[in-house]
Design goal:
The complex is a heterodimer of chains A (274) and B (154).
Chain A lengths: L4 E3 L4 H11 L4 E3 L5 H6 L7 E4 L8 E4 L2 E5 L4 H6 L4 H8 L4 H6 L2 H4 L8 H8 L3 E6 L2 E6 L4 E3 L2 E2 L6 E8 L4 E8 L7 E12 L2 E10 L6 E2 L1 H7 L6 H14 L10 H17 L2
Parallel strand pairs in A: 1-3, 2-3
Antiparallel strand pairs in A: 4-5, 5-10, 6-7, 6-10, 8-9, 11-12, 12-13, 13-14
Helix pairs in contact in A: 4-7, 8-9, 9-10
Chain B lengths: L1 E8 L3 H8 L2 H7 L3 E8 L2 E10 L2 E15 L3 E10 L2 E14 L2 E13 L7 H23 L8 E2 L1
Antiparallel strand pairs in B: 1-7, 1-8, 2-3, 3-4, 4-5, 5-6, 6-7
The chains are: A alpha+beta (274), B alpha+beta (154).
Chain lengths: 274, 154
């Protein structure tokens, strides 16, 4: 093992200070479910590791009309909350109990596809992320956070501190389709949040996992839903749009062709369940 | 590890092929490429930095262009050696003119050695896909800066 120093900050400002002092070579670790296997296998050789476990970033609490989720809050804690049922549902379908007790909500945003199921649900819920760095804090929509495969707008001296999700009630659906019922990587993941006004769809948010280099919003499908009556024609149109606009890939779980077909199938099923 | 796909670039096949053989262009378009030198008519040596979270490192790189049929096809053979493993690979590409642009079809295989080989394939294949897509997008921008938005990578 290459690790010579294990840093355990007790606050966010202390963590930001350590990151600034040691630079991008410092491995930032939350739950360790991704990083520790890499270190143990000799693939990752960091000299310094900073744990966020005791940096005061592990709470999940209602704050006015949002649910504030610390980036180092475990997936089990997310599963236990009842303010936003879609997030409990997404957490329940992520990994296994033992991994959920260690893995964090923030860490899930950095997990490569086909992982990152909670991030898909957060995207459908118009979540925002709060980033902290030496120049202060910034708050942005999660939709603007991802830039590519395992790349984000996070600067090398910034930390993801918190995720906020509006608690306003919306009709929601979450479907993770995998090869097994539980503890399985996704063929595709679909998360949906919808608001109807006067019988028509007022707001539609549709997010997809394992259908791009990172969790993505299916904006053409959302446009097909917005303003329409949620009938079989609209549902068919939205499912077709989502299948056309997604960017799936081939891996050991499924082919690009199959994933694209399944995006259409499970977007339709998600909408029919509302 | 396998990667394949297709991309459309807004420049004729001759310009695309010339860029693939130009070390200056390769330095600009290969993500993380820190240096590259042409050491013979068909061989390049250089260094590429991989900045996958937790798998940060630089790789000494040798790339050879073989079976080149300018401006329609060729094969790139490469070998990367880093602190935590090696990556050897071969990729075949075909260029065909279409509406004043070029459609690039490519397919490649890679063999990973050392501790890096224990890395989950979702990291390696996803990273390889992102490298190719980003590289082709950069190549498109270099060849036709004004028409960058026309570059379609899939």
């Amino acid at each position: 093992m290459s690790v010579r120093e294990y840093l355990m900050p007790r606050s966010v400002p202390e963590a930001v200070g350590l990151l600034e002092r040691h630079g991008p070579e410092l491995l930032v670790m939350a739950g360790g479910t991704v990083a520790m296997p890499l270190i143990n296998e000799g693939i990752s050789l960091p000299e310094r590791v900073m744990s966020l476990r005791h940096a005061g970033m592990d709470r999940v609490e209602r704050r006015g009309d949002v649910l504030a989720i610390g980036a180092a809050a475990t997936l089990s804690r997310l599963l236990a909350q009842d303010a936003v049922p879609l997030l409990s549902e997404a957490a329940r379908h992520t990994a296994s109990w033992s991994i959920r007790n260690m893995g964090t909500v923030g860490g899930n945003l950095f997990t490569p596809p086909p992982g990152g199921d909670v991030a898909v649900a957060l995207l459908a819920l118009d979540a925002r992320v709060r980033l902290a760095g030496p120049r202060g804090e910034r708050d942005l929509p999660l939709a603007d956070f991802f830039t590519g495969f395992m790349t984000t707008v996070l600067a090398s001296d910034e930390l993801l501190v918190e995720i906020t999700v509006p608690t306003a009630a919306r009709e929601t659906a979450f479907i993770k389709y995998g090869r097994k019922h539980a503890n399985t990587p996704a063929v595709v993941t679909v998360a949906m949040a919808l608001e109807r006004r006067g019988g028509r769809v007022g707001v539609a948010r549709l997010a997809l996992g394992a259908a791009g280099p990172h969790p993505i919003r299916a904006t053409n499908a959302e446009a097909a839903l917005t303003g329409a009556i949620l009938d079989a024609t609209t549902i068919g149109r939205a499912a077709q749009a989502a299948a056309a606009e997604c960017q799936p890939f081939t891996d050991g779980i499924a082919t690009e062709w199959y994933r694209r077909r399944m995006v259409g199938v499970f977007v339709r099923r998600a909408l029919e369940s509302l | 590890m396998k990667v394949s796909g297709s991309a459309t670039l807004a420049a004729p096949p001759e310009a695309v092929f010339a860029a693939i053989c130009d070390p200056g262009a390769l330095l600009e378009v290969i993500p993380g490429c820190q240096e590259i030198h042409q050491v013979s008519a068909d061989e390049y040596r250089g260094r590429i930095a991989i900045r996958l979270p937790a798998v940060v490192g630089t790789y000494d790189t040798v790339v050879r262009l073989v079976n080149a049929e300018a401006p329609t096809s060729g094969e790139l053979e490469g070998h990367l050696v880093g602190r935590v493993g090696t990556i050897g690979g071969r990729a075949v590409f075909h260029l065909r003119g279409e509406d004043g642009g070029t459609v690039v079809d490519y397919s490649g295989t890679g063999v990973v050695g050392g501790p890096l080989a224990r890395l989950d394939s979702r990291f390696l294949e996803g990273f390889a896909r992102s490298l190719v897509n980003e590289g082709l997008a950069r190549l498109g921008r270099r060849l036709q800066p004004a028409a960058a938005e026309r570059v379609a990578v899939r």
